[in-house]
Amino acid sequence: MNSRQRVLTVFAHEQPDRVPVWCGASEPFWEKAKAQLGVDDEALRVYLDDDFRRVFSHNPSLREVPEGATSVTPFGVPRTGLGYGQPITHPLAGATLNEIHSYAWPDPSRVDISHIRAEAVSYDGEYAILGGEWSPFWHDLIDLIGMEELFLRMYDAPESIDAICQYVVEYYAEVSRRTFEAAGDVIDIFFIGNDFGSQRGPLLDEEMFRRFLMPHLQYLVDLGHDYDLRVMMHCCGGIAELLPAMIDAGLDGIHALQPCCESMAPQRLKREFGERIVLNGGLDSHRVLIDGTPEMVREETRRLLEIMMPGGGYIGGASHDTILEETPLENVVAMFEAYQEFGVYP
Question: Which domain CATH number covers 188?
Answer without folding.
Answer: 3.20.20.210
